[in-house]
Every structure is written in C-alpha cells, then in structure tokens.
Design goal:
With 124 residues, the chain is an all-beta fold. It contains no helices and eleven strands.
Length: 124
C-alpha cells in the first residue's frame, strides 16, 4: 500500500523559507512524476512543482519559479520542496502526490497517490 507523508510546514514571515518533505512508502520509483500541489481556502488545488523521477526533469508553476526548488532523494524515498522568498499568497495546504504524467504534471486528477497535507502560513 502506497503511503505519502508530508512534513515541514509551519508559519513564517514573508521573505522566509521552509522545506517540505514527503516520505513515500510502498511506492516504486519509476518513470512517473511526483509533485507538490497546494490549495488555499476557497480556491482550487494547483500544481506547484513536479519532478519526473525517471530523468529528474523538474517543472514549476510561474508563480513559484525562481523561488521554489523540488528535489528527490531516491535512497531515502523522499521528495522535497525548498521554498524561499515566501509570500503571503503562498499560504495554503501543501500536498505531495505521486503517479502523475509529465505531460500533465500540474493536473491533480493525473496523480494516483496523495499525502494528507501540511499547512504553510506566510504572514506579511
């Protein structure tokens, strides 16, 4: 049974940094995407970043490009999201997802497995 467990969320001031982690168990790394999504109250879930586990290609939404970095440690079965220069608009529940397609990396319905989420709150 695949399980994704996120951690690392918290409250920071604007301009600060956080690193999210997602530990995967029961999941075999192959040629799929693992990604980070976020959802703010009253808004749709949006793709933030993804990594193609086969080759390591990364994808980012325009809103986080240059500020967030997605990475993976296959030996630890862990996905990371380094978030720098955080803004109040980055405030949301952040979810780890696995099993997506690189062609549609930002579409939440393309992913098979999801974590429970970790809250990120950025104050101005």
């Amino acid at each position: 049974q695949v399980q994704l467990v996120e951690s690392g969320g918290g409250s920071v001031q604007a301009g600060g940094s956080l690193r999210l982690s997602c530990v995967a168990s029961g999941y075999t790394y192959s040629s799929y995407c693992m990604g980070w999504f976020r959802q703010a109250p009253g808004k749709e879930r949006e793709g933030v970043a993804a990594i193609y586990t086969g080759g390591g290609t990364t994808y980012y939404s325009d809103s986080v490009k240059g500020r967030f970095t997605i990475s993976q440690d296959k030996a630890k079965n862990t996905l990371y999201l380094q978030m720098n220069s955080l803004k109040p608009e980055d405030t949301a529940m952040y979810y780890c997802a696995a099993g997506g397609s690189w062609i549609a990396w930002a579409r939440s319905n393309e992913y098979t497995y999801w974590g429970q989420g970790t809250q990120v709150t950025v104050s101005s």
